[in-house]
Amino acid sequence: AAAAGLTTSTLGAEASLVALRSAMLHEFSAGFALAAPALVLGVVAALVLARVQSAALARWLAPLPAPARGLDGAFVGAAFGGVHFGILFWLGTALSARIASRFAGHRHEHEPHADVHPHADVHPHADVHVHDTPDGEHTPHGTLVESHAVHAPSVAHRVSAPLRELAAWTLTALVLYALLVASLLPDALAVLDVPLALVAAALAGLAVELPAPAAVIIAIAAYNRGLHADAALTFAVVASAKVYARPAPLALTLLIALVAGFSARTLVPTPPSLPFAIAAPAMLVVAGLFVFAAWQQGIRSLFAAVFHSHDTA
Fold first, then answer.
1. Any idea what the Cα angle at residue 97 is, between residues 96 and 102, rounded to 5°?
2. Is residue 169 within 8 Å of residue 159, measured between CB atoms?
3. How far is CA 97 from the centre of its chain?
4. Is 60 left (phi over 0), alpha (psi -120 to 50) or beta?
């Protein structure tokens, strides 16, 4: 529904529609070329972090946005807005996630542990039920449960679902990036002064929960159309934060996002120039990942994370 609506709204031979299609295609290609190397680095970071053996480090990283713990958003931020923008985004995301995780109600506290099966506990009646072994001996039932229920999922299993969601949201964010940049005037959002822009960015970020790369791409698109850099960074940090609407973590997340945004008030996000020899292979890799995700799950199921129904589409 989303693809059909977007496509049919730009069809026609009118000069304005022809110009819009051309501009959208150009902006999508340019955005994809910038995002592709960063997304490849994000996938590599996700695979590396999924192999972390240190329990203390794993606990420290747990509240940060999956699958790359915010590093994918930092890479995308650096690709679109420069290294300083990417660093400020990751610092804001990491601080808000870590501090908010100290309060009850954080989402990761309610998720089952990634390394242990949720039913891996010893059976409550282990001292009663027994099974015969080949040697005729009796073995407690709980021992058998523990021997086959506790297992560590593979790295591919732990990162496949977050990566599929990331693929759907990133592709959607790139389309929104092309639509915003192509259809709005360069200073369309400059009419918002700094206080109003910060409030609007914070409220817009609270309304959605996005993967880090998608939040950054949409924030940069708004910046390219006149939104202040501090407001754009505030939106990216808040939108990628995993916080329920509880007063304490919500206030801390907003405060950290505003501080991170305030640090970027004099920043001029400028994308670095990447040689075609780097961008082209990365684009092929990311396109292949998109195709593989769609083939593995189906296009409709893949985008269910973005559009939960025809109404939301």
1. 100
2. no
3. 14
4. alpha
